[in-house]
From TrEMBL:
Organism name: Oscillibacter hominis
Pfam family, one: UPF0102
HAMAP family on file: UPF0102 (MF_00048)
GO MF terms, alphabetically ordered: nucleic acid binding
Family statement drawn from the similarity comment of this UniProt entry: Belongs to the UPF0102 family.
Top-rank lineage group of the source organism: Bacteria
Protein name as catalogued: UPF0102 protein H8790_06765
Length: 118
């Protein structure tokens, strides 16, 4: 499963670079969890959760970013901001990567401001 996650994160990183984001970190870990991608654009720190699916039998990828996952991401983001002594607004985004299961991307959706910081 790790290989598929890395694939989804690579697809998302390419998308972000094309859109003018600066990538600050990937697979950043702290004791509270992992942030898939940390990016920045226009003075906003973007915490990006990447979800990859080959079918929708388990629902839309964004649905996997439930309340529990959101809390973990908020806490990890606060740790990242503190560790790096940043003073930037934080936004939480979700990238949905759809694949045919053979290494091909069949769809991609990037959801800005997918959930709030509270």
């Amino acid at each position: 499963m790790k290989g598929l996650g890395d694939f989804g994160e690579a697809v998302t990183a390419r998308y972000l670079r094309k859109k003018g984001y600066t990538l600050r970190a990937s697979q950043w870990r702290c004791r509270f969890g992992e942030i898939d991608i940390v990016a920045e654009k226009a003075g906003v720190l973007c915490i990006v959760e990447v979800k990859l699916r080959s079918n929708l039998s388990r629902g839309l990828p964004r649905e996997a970013v439930d309340g529990r996952k959101q809390r973990k991401l908020r806490t990890a983001a606060a740790c990242y901001v503190s560790n790096n002594e940043l003073d930037l607004p934080v936004r939480f985004d979700v990238a949905e990567v759809y694949t045919d299961g053979k290494g091909g991307v069949t769809g991609f959706q990037y959801i800005e401001d997918a959930f709030t910081c509270d």
